[in-house]
Amino acid sequence: MTVFHNLGFPRIGKQRELKKAVEAYWNQELSQEALQQEGARLRQAHWQLQHEAGVKWVPVGDFAWYDHILEWTTTLGVVPARFQHPVGSSVDLDTLFRMARGRAPQGQPAAACEMTKWFDTNYHYIVPELEANQSFYLARESLFDQVAEAQQAGFEVKPVIPGPLTWLWLSKGDSFSEGAGDVAKLQLLPALLTVYIEILERLAAQGVEWVQVDEPALVLDLPPAWLQAYATAYEQLAQSPVKLLVATYFESIAHHIDTVKQLPVAGWHIDIVRAPQQLNAVVEALGADQVLSVGAIDGRNIWRSDLDALSRQLQVVRAQLGSRLWIAPSCSLLHVPVDVSSETGLDEELKSWLSFAVQKLEELRLLIALLEGTVSDADQKYLLAQRSALQSRAHSARTHNPELRAKLKKIDQISRTRTPFAERIHVQRKHLNLPAFPTTTIGSFPQTKEIRQLRRDWREGNVSDAAYEKAIQAEIERVIRFQEEIGIDVLVHGEAERNDMVEYFGELLAGFAFTQNGWVQSYGSRCVKPPIIFGDVLRPAPMTVAWSAYAQSLTTLPVKGMLTGPVTMLQWSFVRDDQPRKETCQQLALALRDEVLDLEAAGIQVIQIDEPAIREGLPLRRADWEAYLQWAVDCFRLSTSGVKDSTQIHTHMCYSEFNDIMQAIAAMDADVITIETSRSNMELLEAFEDFHYPNDIGPGVYDIHSPNIPQQEWMVSLMQKAAQKLPAERLWVNPDCGLKTRGWPETQAALLEMVAAARYLRQHL
After folding, report:
1. Domains of the chain by range and CATH?
2. Does the N terminus or the C terminus of the chain have fewer Cβ atoms within 10 A?
3. What is the mean pLDDT of residues 349-371?
4. Is 732 labelled as part of a ligand binding site?
């Protein structure tokens, strides 16, 4: 019998219950005991749901209070010294939260740990920080407690833990390189494996049969020393009393097939959605007793699967492997919303095309029924609906626009070039008349409860258009006057009208659809509702011009027009899978080009097109980088290249590693780029220094993901480091990211410090 299992389930709850509970705890509106009870309730509900769907073992360990890597880091006792945690003692929940966000209800505030993207997804994790003589020990009992919790509720369990090599690869430290495969980190592997063995033995003592060990780093281009480390590590771990399922996803492991053959593990999981070509190679490499878990249903997108085609594809594998074939999603279902049945606002045709976590489990059950020949009458009814939905989507007129298709055929005729930066920057400086170390923010200002309620009331028809416009204009004026008062040089309008930096634009573009409850976790308590790109993208009318023009009318200082770039809109949406992503991105770029030109015509002198997702969209295999970067950069330039020399184009990128894509970033040719550098202590600037990046740059000096208020001295010291790496005349002073999630009091205090820091720099540098 083919085994049905799952790699992980969304932890946030259908209505973001975990987010609300965690934030209430941070605000000291909920006790830690009540928070723990809510976590237990959610885990129980999710285990029950998976059990009822037919999952053999419920995954345990996929739950996290902030992110799963931070959970594991603290389980291993890896806590940076600044958090004043006694080595050898248990790590409490408040220490975990202080590592994530700089503060918690208990414990002294400290600089939060660095945060970055989880491979090529929009999920973030807290980067583990290592010391040269790093010690490891079992510092938390939460995994074992949750295993016992599930067992006591009557569930069979499969614990899920990050693999030692993936965790080590993702770590950083002053003595080590970050993400570059520094072999020095491998010196820590023996000590790390000692704790892993202890954990596996503890799980075995609890009666656990299988442990899922996630090793997505194995899909990357790994140096020989790291491949050898896999062999060394799993020779030891395989001696444990539990069976190990090594889970890989997001790409193929076929290029490391010799290493795969060496590892004496009980089973492998592979992702055939992202890398179907690896299936035959991995089947051939399996040992006689090893199981193969095939990730057949897309764990990262929301379209229904063609179960008939999958069944035909896997019949041969089933004939070869028999009961050694397991079926699962391609990766954890963390990356998709919980349940499409909660969506009452979507039209029935579009809704029939979609599959969220609950539906994906049902698809997996039906796929196994097809493979086993056990399709019931009820299953047959579901399969008929599935086939009908696939046919409806394939032939729907709503997915293609002939006029846009004709325009795309001539897209190569549109110029992507501007006057060289060295010439146009002089025009811009004269035109804008800015001081040295000009100050700005990234775009959004705090979105208060009142602003969010106003938007809800307007959408529900409880506030008239005129009243809504008046209220938003009042908030814009408040933001403008505050920036003028404290001395910001290039202003923003604050984005009070925007619910999300992608969703807002998608609502105004054709080809997008939106959910009511399609929440996914981005980081910590931050949840987003990715738009769904189901058809050709067009801009029926200007999207931001009226708000930006109103803001500019209030002041003589320049106000930035704020747009989200084409690649980020692509990456942060659920994208149609019936055409290449490049084509969808080009459609987005054409729509944004029209918006940019309309902003310029309305008198907006500075336009920011945010592209924080350029790096995360990078393919995981280096051989595929060039093709992606070529069309990604081209789409950015397609959006921006129509403006005059005097119009200054900004872009923003956050929580990314830039060293290996500097040429592409420079090729984007933005006049000013703003980046995150406060958490990394300006480390990211080294890439720009080494590359001799030619354009202006704003290294963020204010970590907006922490409630801590940075002091002037701290910001000055960061900018002094920046001025040692890059010419001072090309430096801007700004926060790391938008201020939407912060409160007004801390924002006001932090920006006052930032402006004071810029004034100090003007006097002393």
Report:
1. 3-16+39-66+114-395 (3.20.20.210), 426-510+536-764 (3.20.20.210)
2. N
3. 97
4. no
